[in-house]
Amino acid sequence: MKTIKDIDVKNKTILVRVDYNVPLKNGKVENDLRIRASLPTINYLLEQGAKRIVLISHLGRPEGKPSSEFSLRPTIGVLEHLFPNHSIGFYDLPKKDEQIQIPSKVKIALLENLRFDPREEANDAEFIANIAKSVNADIYVQDGFAVIHRAHASTDAIKEHLPVYAGFLIENEIKNLENVTKNPESPVLLIIGGAKVDDKQPLIDKFLKQADYIYVGGKIAADGYKSSHKKIIVASDFDTNEKGEKLDIGPLSTGELANLITDAKTIIWNGLLGYAEDPAYATSSTIAAELIGEHQGAETIICGGDTTGFVENLMKEHDSLHYSLVSTGGGASLEFLLGKKLPGLAAIKQ
């Protein structure tokens, strides 16, 4: 896989696909970890003398229509804070054959939400070609891991118009995910939570051979998931509300999982263990996240949108938590672990 280290970017305009699909609250970025995840790539391009960096991303699901609710404009304030010595520009998506007029002083430009145009999700080659031409892009850098499992214009069709190289975020995601699929250090622990058995069973089946233990919690366990396989351990006690609903795994099951985490050398966690939206039922997920984040002797992978969001919020509160990878791609990381072909990854120069 060709990365930005394999090319000369000096005096070139680089079009970079990032993942700024960040949570917003009252018109402000609530959690900027995804923006910060793009810093290694952007800083490298700046250090190597790139003429200009043009960032493109999506945010939310505006269904092909412009909307202030899904505008990327709030991320500009974060970028200005992260790059105080550079002028940052923000521009609407270009109309057909339109040239975006970016002043020479603007070193980093961000375009509006790609999904404001339905052609992004339709994998329209003309749409992404027009964007590339509108900023005179020389090279395309794919650094939006969260979308590489989608055949969209900014992940797939772009390869028809510009050479595509991987950014450091993509490289780091692939490296860590490959570590736990190809040659993981034993004992290997897969932790499964969440609500939908159909979504999780393929991952359980995939790791049955490699894993030493597969621990199942969350609503899946609460709803009665059963397995006779000796590697699979299902939570057996639960914390309930006044209605008797099982909303978190209980202290015995949490203790059992804690022991498995302590002994493991490779840990993959996908799916919250309880109804963590309510702090009263986030106990097991919090304990697991803290134990994994403090277990520096293991390769630790956190994946799945709800799980990574939960862990990212904990990381803001506790500087001591560190993981090998908190994946920025929910669906993408799962499909990679399952061995599926990812269109955006296939588009990167081999």
Structure, described:
The chain is α/β, with parallel strands linked by helices and 350 residues long. It folds into 2 domains: 4-169, Phosphoglycerate kinase, N-terminal domain (Rossmann fold, 3-Layer(aba) Sandwich), CATH 3.40.50.1260; 184-337, 3-Layer(aba) Sandwich (Rossmann fold). It contains 12 helices and 16 strands. The strands form 4 sheets. Strands 5-6-4-1-7-8 form a 6-stranded parallel beta sheet. α6 links the parallel β9 (188-192) and β10 (213-216). The protein starts with 12 loop residues before the first strand and ends with a helix. The model has no long low-confidence stretch (mean pLDDT 94).
* Quaternary structure state of the chains depicted: single chain
User: Strand share of the residues?
Assistant: 15-25%
Question: For the record, what CATH class of the largest domain applies?
Answer: Alpha Beta
Across the major sheet, the strand order is 5-6-4-1-7-8
Count the domains.
2
Say what the CATH topology of the largest domain is: Rossmann fold
Query: What would the average pLDDT be, to the nearest integer?
Result: 94
- Per CATH, the architecture of the largest domain is 3-Layer(aba) Sandwich
- Estimated radius of gyration: 21 Å
